[in-house]
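Input chain follows. Return structure tokens only.
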Amino acid sequence: TNALNTTLEENLRMIRDSVAYLTDRGLEVIYDAEHFFDGYRQNPDYALETVKVAREAGAAMAVLCDTNGGSLPGQVAEAVKLVKDRLDCPLGIHAHNDSELAVANTLSAVEAGAVHVQGTINGYGERCGNANLCSVIPLLQVRMGRELIAGEQLASMTEVSRFVSETANLEPRPHQPFVGRSAFAHKGGIHVSAMMQHPETYEHIEPEVVGNHRRVLVSELAGASNIVYKAQEYDIDLPKGSSGTRKILESLKGLEYQGYFFEGAEASFELLVKKALGLHRPLFELASLRLIIEKREHNGAPLAEAAIKVRVGDQVVHTVAEGEGPVNALDNALRRALGEAYPRLKEIKLSDYKVRVLDEKSGTAARVRVLITSRDQQGEWGTVGVSTNIIEASWRALVDSIEYGLLKAGRTAEPVAELNI
């Protein structure tokens, strides 16, 4: 009566005529009952009548819609069950997430008899989104025993989620269930120790089932178990009570006291581990660095120029480069200096750069943390640098980023002596 400016009787005639027009031409009609649950709560008999009319006109399916996302799972289950009991019509569910219950409402509808589910990858949709198929599908298949897709298809769920995010030009949500980067991330030392023995203690599903993987984070909460687990990821056999483990923990806590934070910079942590154990030799060494920032006009953009000397093997390479700001100039100069020795460097791209002030009360003299995200054709990695000088912090994160990327790509430094841990 408000949105369509019509009467209840005319609405029924429109439903009947529209569905009949399509079915008479051989089309399969899925009737989406917009606002069904709101209408059912206000006028249950009329809400049922709309579905009955659509079915009589030839609709193959009636999808009950929680259009404004305000229904509760119990309300959804009650309505679906009643419609199923009274009408001979296969039912579906279309849930919006305005109350953050779209997935729960979808599962409640299925338990009550719905055989058709509508949703979107990552829950993308208007307002707060739709039912997230990246959660609905594994829950239906793994938790509720509904065979929907093959195991190898389910194992591509994380890849599909990230592909859709990239296509939509949206950052993947790290804390998204099942497919998020942090969905199977573990931090506390005792927590990780228990998880290593019995993963089900802290994981409700094996990450690989949905194409994700387990991550163990390192921070001030880290214990020896975290360090041992991370070393295994790097193909290093590190006993839990070894001096090497203690040395890494001491280095970690000392750096975190300075303001380092490795949860978003696991590449820097891998380099830290290998440096502490004597397993890392730098691919290049800085000989000197000079930055010039020049501003010629009051409203003109500043010009940045970096001059750098680096030792690569037995050679000292000297280059100069300009950039859009000092960090970009520094990046350009370093890449120019290393490009001939490490041609794979051109495949490494800086994809994100963040600066965070750690002690705001110090004003412009505050210590800052720089986080850099880099990527190549195989994936992405994060590095970190901390200093009271933003250029120095950026340099540390940038060097880690380049060294890690080159080493990951197969470029190795000189062999080191046998490790004694």
